[in-house]
Write a structure and sequence with these properties.
The chain is of the alpha/beta class. It has 7 helices and 8 strands. An 8-stranded mixed β-sheet has the order 1-7-8-6-5-2-3-4, with helices on both faces.
């Protein structure tokens, strides 16, 4: 099954990604694109993990990376077909010119490899609200509603958002199609409905949008398979 419209437990897409990667023949070369402060996956397959991030403070906190790069995903150069897996979680919404990053992913991934992308869905209530509110509000929301006390401090998100068209669902489907890649999974999950105020505000925006903005999910994950050689 490719598509899920219902609200799902926030870890279900993580388990799916772990299963798909663990099924691959190791040892694997994995790139965490926009690695931040923490690697979220539990993998059994032998692998070497490379992390790249613009935020030197965040990447300096990592002790689990085999190689680190402080650099820009749009302009950094890795050799062609360097990685079996490219994992990019909550990054591309912060990149103006995200289409260039996707093109780099297409060059860096090996034939038969996986590109895993997770972003807040820009076409959901959550995404619409993010696109239409100032950055200081995002900091306050993450700090006081989501409980991240260091939100907005150096080395900690949230970062400014741009939501290029390339990371909409239509844009990702177009990217996969243009490279003859298989879009194996699209999973929509919800983890932002904490408290009645947030939930009822989301429902209200859903109806004010004439139901065009879905409210039950805020995140969308893609598992893309590169064409085998």
């Amino acid at each position: 099954r490719e598509y899920s419209e219902t609200e799902r437990h926030k870890d279900m897409d993580k388990e799916l990604v772990e299963k798909k990667i663990n099924e691959m023949a190791g040892p694997l070369q994995i790139l965490e694109a926009g690695c931040g402060r923490k690697w979220p996956l539990d993998l059994d397959v032998p692998h070497k993990l490379t992390g790249i991030d613009l935020d030197a403070d965040a990447i300096s906190a990592r002790t689990d990376l085999d190689a680190t790069v402080v650099g820009d995903l749009r302009s950094h150069v890795f050799p062609e077909h360097s990685f079996d897996v490219i994992y990019c979680c909550y990054v591309l919404e912060h990149v103006p010119g995200a289409a260039q990053v996707l093109e780099n992913f297409a060059r860096w991934v090996r034939p038969g490899g996986l590109i895993v992308i997770k972003v807040p869905d820009p076409e959901s209530v959550f995404g619409w609200a993010t696109r239409n509110t100032p950055h200081w509000f995002h900091v306050m929301f993450k700090r006081y509603f989501m409980g991240f006390k260091r939100a907005g401090q150096v080395g900690h998100g949230p970062y400014r958002t741009y939501y290029d068209r390339a990371i909409t669902e239509g844009g990702i489907r177009e990217f996969a199609r243009s490279h003859n890649f298989a879009l194996e999974n699209v999973e929509k999950t919800g983890d932002y409905l904490r408290g009645r105020v947030v939930k009822y505000s989301a429902i209200l925006l859903h109806y004010l949008s004439l139901r065009s903005l879905p409210w039950r999910h805020n995140n969308i994950s893609y598992v893309i398979r590169a064409q085998a050689a």
